[in-house]
Amino acid sequence: MYQLSPESVFGVTLQAGLSALKTPACFPDPEQTAGVKNKDCPVCQDNLHVIAECLPFAHCSQSRLVCFITGEPLNESTNRPMMLPNGYVYGEKALAQMAGDNDGTVTCPRTQNSYKLSDAQRVFVL
Prior knowledge:
Blueprint: H1 9-21, H2 30-33, H3 46-52, E1 81-83, E2 89-91, H4 92-101, E3 105-107, E4 114-116, E5 121-122
Antiparallel strand pairs: 1-2, 1-5, 3-4
């Protein structure tokens, strides 16, 4: 009536946000994962999981992050992306190896600034 949508603006916005975050990892095969959920993922939360079931997955078929130092792919399981205080991102494996060779200190190959490994922060990529 009067060209008003039956969906609320909040509901449409919430669904758009959940669809942008939804990945196949949010809806794994229950037989293989036994209910493993990411506590920081909004889509994996029980109340939002129900809303996101009918939404499409985020489309990111061509994106690949690669460590500048080692050339290895960055991922959430074996080589997590880590950001140094200067803003440059490298693989966790490369930083850990560099810290092991230099008494816990990592040196940014681009700026030559040195930091403690504990100063690096994990990066979450959607």
